[in-house]
Design goal:
alpha+beta, Pdz3 Domain, four-stranded mixed sheet, four-stranded antiparallel sheet
Length: 466
């Protein structure tokens, strides 16, 4: 019990460390650019809440808060936010005006630093490798739900999907070039599947369905009820387990059970459910050779219907995508999400995004898994690109909003009115906080529905003030 609690606490610390690193680096970009361009800086804070430490150095307050949730830079010349913050520095003289160019440089510096950190982390992923599960590398159908839309349309187990709704696919799940994403993203009454079957190329139009869900959960998205083929390959064998006693090793592929061919895990588990704890004769492919083994499953663990094996299915391999490839994939993923969000016919809505709670949960799940630190590092590349791009949206209180207002000021050749600007900032800040509260509601609801998937795209991470 104690080791499990200790391990969970360690994962929480790792999650907080990497999450705070990403936000603070973004804020550091604003801070350094403001120092370079000579802007007044009221405070540079790491974390929020009641300060644990606060000191004024060179006219700038530096602080460490009590709530480990990122950081902020107070730049009063960039955006008046007194109505939101509730306090401001006492000044004997008015703030000196600054040029629109300086505002643009300071606002742009945060996203630039996030992109630079993304490139640094992508370079680390390139060096140490990104874990990829072999199950993620196939588009072959392994299961078709009887009576479901795909079954009625004529899709079969064994079909290799080449295109969905006119878009090529090279994996079954994920937010980019995947079967599930193209199904979710479809907008027509039917979804066209181009498949390879017995050497022939066929196009099959399938209907789709949506499961009903209560109002406190995210609305279900389109499904055709197919599953990918999961080869019964052994990824890991628990020491002392029935699989270990039988002689199974990581990397083995089970090809036959009691002389009958098995192509996927669904077929294997059909045999397992029939056999229970009786011995099973396995034919196993090990490298270039075939091995015969006898597996005697153990008593099913509490809460499980299947007998105990002690096998983690599927092998992990390390790939080494280049930094440019990783950043490009992140940009394309975010583009896809925004395109889906703003399309009036799309089923993807704001509630399908995730806020800070969902992002922290995704990091926790990644760190908890095998090769967790590598997976978290790869996800951080995506998160940094997301942080940069979302903050470049032309929405006041985001960096892109500051840039837009500065460009308007440059065109007008005079600053915008203080009260007008503060009103815009306040209204938009409230809107952003309302949006984050909205997606956080659904993030919290996921804890009660057992979802463990990483977010398709985080919601924009914003700063307290600029």
């Amino acid at each position: 019990m104690f080791p499990k609690i200790f391990n969970s606490a360690l994962i929480v610390l790792e999650v907080l460390l990497i999450f705070n690193l990403l936000i603070v680096v973004h804020e550091l970009g604003h801070f350094l650019a403001a120092r370079w361009r000579g802007l007044v800086i009221d405070e540079f804070g790491i974390w929020f809440g009641k300060p644990l430490w606060r000191r004024k150095l060179g006219g700038v307050w530096y602080s460490l808060g009590s709530i480990p949730a990122g950081g902020y830079v107070k730049l009063p010349q960039l955006a008046p936010m007194e109505a939101i913050e509730g306090s401001t520095e006492e000044r004997g003289t008015p703030l000196p005006p600054i040029r629109p160019l300086d505002k643009i440089i300071v606002a742009f510096a945060g996203p630039v630093f996030s992109f630079l950190l993304a490139l640094v982390m992508a370079s680390l992923v390139w060096a140490v490798g990104k874990p990829v599960h072999e199950f993620d590398q196939t588009t072959v159908i392994g299961f078709v739900k009887p009576g479901g839309p795909a079954d009625r349309a004529g899709l079969l187990a064994g079909d290799r999907i080449l295109e969905v709704d006119g878009s090529p696919v090279d994996r079954f799940t994920g937010p980019l070039h995947s079967v599930t994403w193209r199904v979710v993203r479809s907008e027509g009454e039917t979804i066209a599947f181009k498949v390879e079957r017995d050497g022939q190329i066929l196009t099959i139009d399938s209907g789709w369905e949506r499961e009903s869900s209560p109002g406190w959960k995210r609305k279900s998205l389109r499904k055709v009820y197919i599953g990918q083929r999961l080869t019964p390959s052994v990824g890991k064998v628990d020491a002392g387990s029935p699989a270990d006693s039988a002689g199974l090793r990581a990397g083995d592929v089970i090809t036959e059970v009691d002389g009958v061919s098995v192509l996927d895990l669904a077929k294997f588990y059909e045999f397992l459910d029939k056999k229970g704890t009786s011995p099973m004769q396995l034919s196993v492919r090990r490298g270039e050779t075939s091995v015969l083994l006898t597996l005697t499953p153990g008593t099913p663990p509490e809460g499980s219907k299947s007998a105990l094996l002690g096998i983690a299915w599927g092998r992990l391999t390390l790939t080494h995508p280049s930094p440019v490839e990783q950043v490009t994939d992140a940009v394309l993923t975010i583009r896809n999400m925004l395109d889906a969000l703003f399309s009036p016919k799309s089923d993807v809505k704001a509630q399908h995004f995730s806020g800070p709670v969902g992002i922290l949960k995704a990091y926790y799940n990644l760190f908890e898994s095998e090769q967790g630190w590598r997976l978290a590092l790869a996800f951080s590349v995506f998160f940094n690109v997301n942080l940069a791009l979302f903050n470049m949206l032309p929405f006041p209180v985001l960096d892109g909003g500051h840039i837009t207002l500065a460009l308007i000021e440059a065109i007008r050749r005079k600053p915008m009115g203080g009260r007008f600007l503060e009103g815009i900032q306040t209204a938009c800040a409230i809107a952003v906080m309302a949006f984050l509260a909205y997606v956080t509601f659904f993030d919290v609801s996921d804890f009660f529905s057992g979802k463990k998937a990483a977010p398709a795209a985080p919601a924009p991470a914003t700063e307290k003030a600029k």
